[in-house]
């Protein structure tokens, strides 16, 4: 996987792409859980393992402006090859690279001089822990499977003729010559000026080119406008996209990326006239189930909201107020969470905590899991347990809740508490230690499962409603 590199790398890619462009003379472009004593989950050990059969949710069908959400690495995926699905251990390893790229981007953003170009090229890795949706592009419309990402802004797809080379994808690549609504943007356009804040930007005969470096690859191509179709009734003309002609990375058969970040080129801003800068998603309890990504509409009455902090301009930051295990609030000073701050991210798998908080959580968890056999973890996650002798038996797992500013409690679904790293022989606590109290904490997608996570960007709030999918 690629890691953040210097801006010279993207500049080189842009120059190579320009050479190819000129030489080619192209001008376009878990099962339901029972609880015991209210503070523990009582589940069968086998329910912690992923299923090989897709279980479609029908909740997406009952919502307007909604898209079906599918795990990239589950039986519901139409683009992935099960033979190439990563192991849980590989997911953990690559998760660390995404976290590193997020921290690098924030570190660059905090500098006032000498860091602008490096900041522009560093976007979170999208290889692991991702979820996909299908959207329509072009006229006539063609559907493409894109990874949706709250940590990225630009929506882009691979484009023919792939002058500089493209990574393998399951769908046919987008061909701008076959769309009557496709238009390249000029270097004088406002979107081109905006993308210059997010990526390396250059011009070719007055046409705007972009280059974005990810933790797991890159995309270089034309900045353009195209018709985006969310649903048959939700069609957006002149939607700014990246038409990637030179792309690389481990996108696992997907066509590109759907940017749900905070900038003016991200989807929430571009569709604000209809959706009012409001979107939500529900990630299913299992990779063998489906969820939904919804835009606009009514907010669930069950949603409890916490403010988006002003600490991070690039990401959705939240203020964590505390943690409880088995119904017991841990003695962690609030300053531990305020030092580095916390980001909620749709693409990071695990939750990363300040060392002080992680130590308290891990100790309390182990104290309540004493009757189970500890085992040495092979992926860097601790503590881990051997449940192989309990395959057909119920096991009791303490509930974990995260508290956010404003009295919001997120009672983590059991599917987000433990991760089967190596079958039932190695089932681990799905939280990571930052190894210090200074780095940013990340609220990962495992811990968001089954909640309707509502991003009311216009009001500066994020909400959580239980039982979303």
Automatic annotation (TrEMBL):
Checking InterPro entries in the record gives: Aspartic_peptidase_A1 (IPR001461), PEPTIDASE_A1 (IPR033121), Peptidase_aspartic_dom_sf (IPR021109), TAXi_C (IPR032799), TAXi_N (IPR032861)
Where the record annotates domain Peptidase A1, the positions are 131-465
Signal peptide region: 1-24
Instruction: Please list the GO biological process terms of this entry.
Output: proteolysis
Q: Which UniProt keywords apply?
A: Aspartyl protease, Disulfide bond, Hydrolase, Protease, Signal
Q: Does the keyword Protease apply?
A: yes
| Cross-referenced Pfam families | TAXi_C, TAXi_N
Active-site residues per Swiss-Prot or TrEMBL entry? 149, 345
Q: Does the keyword Disulfide bond apply?
A: yes
A GO molecular-function descriptor:
aspartic-type endopeptidase activity
Give the family, as the similarity comment puts it: Belongs to the peptidase A1 family.
- Report what the protein is called: Peptidase A1 domain-containing protein
């Amino acid at each position: 996987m690629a890691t953040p590199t210097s801006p010279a790398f993207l500049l080189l890619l842009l120059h190579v792409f320009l050479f190819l462009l000129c030489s080619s003379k192209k001008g376009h472009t878990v099962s339901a859980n029972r609880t015991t004593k209210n503070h523990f989950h009582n589940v069968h050990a086998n329910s912690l393992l992923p299923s090989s059969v897709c279980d479609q949710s029908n909740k997406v069908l009952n919502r307007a402006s909604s898209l079906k959400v599918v795990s990239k690495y589950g039986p519901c995926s139409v683009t992935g090859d099960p033979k190439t699905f990563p192991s849980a251990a590989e997911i953990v390893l690559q998760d660390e690279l995404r976290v590193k790229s997020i921290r690098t981007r924030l570190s660059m953003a905090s500098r006032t001089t000498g860091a602008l170009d490096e900041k522009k090229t560093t976007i979170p890795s999208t290889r692991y822990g991702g979820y996909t949706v299908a959207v329509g592009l072009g006229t006539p419309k063609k559907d493409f499977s894109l990874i949706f990402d709250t940590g990225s802004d630009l929506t882009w797809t691979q484009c023919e003729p792939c002058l500089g080379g493209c990574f393998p994808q399951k769908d046919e690549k987008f061909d701008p010559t076959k769309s009557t609504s496709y238009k390249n943007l000029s270097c004088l356009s406002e979107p081109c000026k905006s993308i210059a804040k997010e990526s390396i930007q250059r011009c070719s005969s007055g046409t705007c080119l972009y280059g974005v470096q990810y933790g797991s690859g890159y995309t270089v191509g034309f900045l353009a406008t195209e018709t985006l179709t969310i649903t048959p009734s939700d069609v957006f003309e002149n939607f700014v996209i990246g038409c990637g002609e030179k792309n690389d990375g481990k996108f696992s058969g997907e066509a590109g990326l759907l940017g749900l970040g905070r900038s003016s080129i991200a989807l929430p801003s571009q569709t604000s006239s209809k959706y009012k800068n409001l979107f939500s998603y529900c990630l299913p309890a299992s990779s063998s189930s489906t969820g939904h990504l919804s835009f606009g509409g009514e907010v669930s009455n069950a949603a409890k909201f916490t403010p988006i902090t002003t600490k991070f301009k690039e990401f959705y930051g939240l203020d964590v107020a505390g943690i409880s295990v088995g119904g017991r609030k841990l003695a962690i000073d609030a300053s531990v969470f305020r030092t580095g701050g916390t980001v909620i991210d749709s693409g990071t798998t695990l939750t990363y905590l300040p060392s002080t908080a992680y130590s308290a959580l891990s100790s309390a968890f182990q104290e309540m899991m004493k009757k189970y056999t500890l085992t040495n973890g092979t992926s860097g996650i601790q503590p881990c347990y051997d449940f192989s002798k309990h395959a057909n038996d119920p096991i009791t797992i303490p509930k974990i809740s995260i508290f956010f500013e404003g009295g919001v409690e997120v009672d983590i679904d059991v599917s987000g508490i433990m991760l089967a790293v190596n079958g039932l022989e190695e089932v681990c606590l799905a939280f990571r230690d930052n190894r210090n109290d200074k780095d940013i904490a990340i609220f990962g997608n495992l811990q968001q499962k089954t909640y309707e996570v509502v991003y009311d960007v216009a009001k500066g709030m994020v909400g959580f409603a239980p039982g979303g999918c």
